[in-house]
Design brief:
single chain; 704 residues; mainly beta; Jelly Rolls; Immunoglobulin-like; 7-stranded antiparallel sheet; 7 helices; disordered N terminus
């Protein structure tokens, strides 16, 4: 398989010294169950090639199998048998020398010339895939490229020097080919899926020695028809060649706006000073004109197009095109001026809120990735996903009081609190921290970096109930009332739990510093505000901790509902009461109610900020005050009933306290219905504050 621009420039190729290597493996010569590294002269295991140099039989070998589906009879099977990745870990050196051992002289690693690689893959539905290219002959020194396949068709490529490239693959449960055409001389790595170019990139680690097949966490996949070819061909670059080298992955919910980020690379000899860029999606094109550049050969610039796209339900192709390069509409290599991605948007279940609970801690060196993952989810899915950070580590100043019960409850569902860094993970680069446990809607344990994938599957799940919630603080006592409306009949041991959360928690002293192995190792981890944890110190002071769990009632597992069964349309309320520590900031607190099915899975949830109820003086209330409907779509009505004449004024505010509208109604007595038009309000929670005589009454409503 060759690059289109290779074909375009075929007459310009110049061949240096005659150094070539090629190999293909279809596994057809082996019997079912054959360990490939122990049997084949061309394959090794990771442990065989690095100290203390394992000997057969290898614990990290992989077997040839006859799978239920295959393009041939046999393939190689990789499966995460430990829950933490591995132990299978097999290596194919890109050198035709056979029976390689650690001391064998090899022509690898290759730093110039061209290497073409391809393999067929079949990923089990619901599972992930992974492989990497090693940059040195001895594994574990440098990863040229890691290729991660998620469970929903996304591919993310990276290495410890932060090279990134994203594309997609066909749905899991389908054989597909992934291929690379690598021009090492000019540092151009082009990716193909089923023969279709996905774009090109320059690699910050531009050398290659071997293929490493390793099943990462939750990986299960088959590999077949593994082929490579290498020669010392030197590619002569065209004069003017600007390429769309990558498009940032885009996904989300129907109706959401998403920025389009496109990476472009100068693969020509001449500097690029300007160009136009278009992005076509769902019949609409957005455009930017980029000026004032000076991109030399191999230089990359990333453009975030000024106007976003609005997602529509379904899967559509997004196409990025560069043109008018240096004022010339078509450059010398038009084949790479365009690239595309698949954009999938889904429609969430109405009223659905997904909960992500993660174990974290200030002494946890790997936990910045959980912090970043939660921040990304809040940025992209605010109002649909609510993260809760449960501080589980000893010595953490937020693991105190009732929060310990929440921590203990979570630890019954995960393999353990985040551990210390592991610097010798088989088949993986230095990993800042062991698997950091998290749950999405109390499902299977995941790493918080997988929040997005699990959220997208949960947000379309049907729900059995929807809710309204009120949380009001008088002094340090927080009273919560959650009203449940059943939308699908339920029966059995359904439960309800209510969590009290404080946002933006700070403190002073060393115990409040966040441990950070990313900074210790210099591994890039970009937060939503652009901060790179890789350049922060190994202990980060002045932290602001988000969504910190303070208490959960009646317990982590919840308490049984008032009745054993409910029919559609049934409505009931449950009351909870928290007592806040005087050092907590009630203005930054909220509650999360969770309906748990008999298996302990969160069916649906509700979020409500805590309002501080204020009274001018202690007055026995003679006022009836209700809001209907709640949630509201276009209008909501305030029902007020006064036994005696009182002056009435009513304000509508945001949850942050910003006044939206206010009405003065003068002296009132008896029953009244006051209707408010909320059709122009953004979706979210609002406060109605009624001053009735010398009494202040606060209620919340939700705009949907």
């Amino acid at each position: 398989m060759k690059k289109l621009y290779f074909l375009f420039l075929a007459s310009l190729l110049a061949l240096n010294a005659n150094s070539q290597a090629s190999f293909c493996e279809d596994f057809e010569l082996y019997s079912n169950g054959t360990p490939i590294a122990e049997t084949s002269k061309n394959w090794n295991t990771w442990g065989e090639l690095m100290p203390p140099y394992a000997i057969a039989p290898f614990i990290d070998d992989a077997n040839v199998v006859t799978p239920p589906v295959s393009p041939g009879t046999n393939s190689l099977y990789l499966n995460d048998a430990t829950g933490a990745g591995g132990p299978q870990d097999v290596v194919l050196m890109f050198d035709t020398t056979q029976n390689i051992i650690s001391t064998t002289p090899l022509s690898t690693p290759y730093t110039t010339g061209t290497l073409d690689f391809s393999q067929m893959m079949y990923i089990i539905p619901g599972k992930t895939g992974y492989f990497n290219f090693q940059a040195e002959n001895e594994p574990g020194i440098s990863w040229a490229l890691e290729v991660n396949f998620d469970a929903i068709g996304g591919i993310i490529m990276s290495n410890t020097s932060a090279t990134t490239f994203n594309c997609t693959y066909p749905a899991a449960g389908t054989w597909f080919e992934i291929a690379f055409d690598i021009d090492l001389s000019n540092n151009i790595w082009e990716v193909f899926i089923d023969g279709v170019s996905q774009g090109s990139f320059s690699n910050s680690i531009n050398q290659i020695a071997s293929l490493d097949l390793y099943p990462g966490v939750s990986s299960e996949y088959y590999v077949d028809d593994v082929c490579y070819s290498y020669d010392t061909t030197q590619i002569v670059l065209p004069g003017l060649d600007l390429a769309v080298s990558n498009i940032g992955a885009i996904s989300g919910l129907d109706g959401q706006n998403r920025d389009v980020t496109v990476e472009v690379t100068n693969f020509g000899i001449n500097p690029v000073t300007s160009f136009d860029i278009d992005f076509l999606y769902n019949g609409n094109t957005i455009t930017d004109n980029i000026l004032g550049l000076n991109l030399g050969t191999g230089a990359i610039t990333t453009v975030t197009i000024t106007n976003p796209i609005t997602l529509v339900n379904g899967t559509y192709t997004g196409i990025a095109t560069v043109s008018n390069v240096n004022g010339i509409m078509i450059d010398d290599n038009p084949s790479n001026d365009t690239s595309s991605i698949q954009i999938t948007s889904i429609t969430p279940t109405p009223g659905k809120l997904v909960i992500g609970e993660q174990a974290t801690g200030t002494p946890c060196f790997g936990c910045p990735r959980g912090i970043v993952a939660a921040n990304e989810m809040e940025r992209d899915y605010n109002g649909y996903f609510q993260s809760i950070s449960i501080h589980t580590e000893s010595g953490d100043p937020m693991k105190v009081g009732a929060a310990i019960d929440y921590s203990n409850g979570l630890n019954n569902y995960i393999t353990g609190p985040p551990g210390p860094p592991s610097l010798a993970s088989i088949g993986n680069p230095p990993d800042p921290g062991l698997q950091q446990g998290a749950l999405v809607d109390r499902g299977t344990e995941i790493d918080p970096s997988a929040f997005r994938d699990h959220f997208l599957s949960k947000i379309i799940s049907p729900v059995s109930a929807i809710f309204t919630a009120d949380a009001n603080a008088t002094g340090n006592v927080i009273d919560v009332q959650i009203t449940t409306t059943i939308t699908s009949a339920i029966n059995g041991d359904w439960k309800f739990a209510c969590a009290l959360i404080e946002d933006s928690v700070t403190g002073t002293g060393g115990s409040w510093y966040q441990a950070n192995k990313y900074g210790d190792l210099g591994i890039s981890l970009i937060d939503v505000d652009g901060t790179d944890w890789g350049v922060l110190p190994s202990w980060v002071p002045s932290m602001i901790y988000r969504n910190v769990s303070r208490e959960i009632l009646p317990s982590f597992e919840g308490g049984l509902l008032p009745n054993g069964s409910y029919n559609v349309g049934d409505v009931f309320t449950q009351d909870f009461q928290f007592t806040a520590d005087p050092t907590w900031d009630i203005n930054s607190m909220y509650v999360v109610g969770m309906l748990l099915n008999p298996n302990g899975i969160v069916d649906n949830a509700v979020y409500s900020p805590v309002s501080i109820a204020t009274y001018v003086e202690n007055v026995s209330s003679t006022t009836s005050f209700n809001i209907y409907p709640n949630p509201a779509v276009s209008t909501t009505t305030l029902l007020i009933n006064l036994d005696t004449e009182k002056e009435v004024s009513i304000s509508v505010k945001s949850v942050e306290g910003k006044l939206i509208t206010k009405g003065e109604y003068g002296t009132m007595i008896g029953s009244h219905s006051l209707t408010f038009d909320v059709s122009d309000f953004a979706n979210g929670v609002y406060i109605i504050e009624a001053i009735v005589g010398n009494e202040v009454i606060v209620k919340k409503f939700i705009k949907e």
